[in-house]
Specification:
This protein is an alpha/beta fold and 212 residues long. The longest helix has 13 residues. The radius of gyration is 16 Å and the shape is globular. A hairpin with a 4-residue loop joins strand 7 and strand 8. Strands 5-4-3-6-7-8-9 form a seven-stranded mixed sheet. It binds S-adenosyl-L-homocysteine. The site of S-adenosyl-L-homocysteine has 26 residues, from strand 2, helix 4 and strand 4.
Amino acid sequence: MMDYDKARERMVAEQLVSRGIADEKVLTAMGAVPRHRFVEMGLEAIAYSDRPLPIGHHQTISQPYIVARMTEALELEPDDKVLEIGAGSGYQAAVLAEIGQKVYTIEKIEPLLERARSILDELGYDNVVSKIDDGARGWPEHAPYDAILVTAGAPDVPQPLMDQLAEGGRMIIPVGDQTLQELIKVVKKNGEARKKKLGGCRFVPLRGEHGW
Ligand code: SAH
């Protein structure tokens, strides 16, 4: 029987702390969420390895470091309302839910969300609300959001998401083509988008009207 707690502890030390992730909230959250529960059946033993993993339907759960990097860049506070586009396995949503107050997550592929939902429920993440939709339209009923995280590569920042970002809110989104993107941080200041580049990344493409 594999010691998942130990594997997770090592992941935090060797993949996150050593690469400069310093936000205690992020380190605590990633030390708490059982990543092995979110990966595909049969891949539990490599759940804490330094790589993305397949979750079926040609989608992936991001490498732990990328999850940490994006979460840290969101600068979350405990009372934040967060919107995630691309629930996938539900892992990132769980990490966000450990730190923020409420997480809204949207997924396009129904069976993925069904599985994510059942694991999140089993683990007691009742502050994660989810739905099936084209996430690039956002979730206007609950806007504005203090933080928005897009976990699929987009050609540009979708305007509905910009509109639903609170004043002072942060959005992290991979922008580029279908194979390579740049991680962009958008901060809304006086109603305007201030953008900063955080480095190259590789996400699955965002599908739909504002995607590919
Ligand atoms: N955050 C996920 C990883 C997501 S992979 C995790 O922690 O596991 C990207 C996900 O975005 C995929 O599940 C894909 O189906 C979804 N996706 C792609 N385009 C989308 C869209 N327009 N709206 C909602 N989800 C989308």
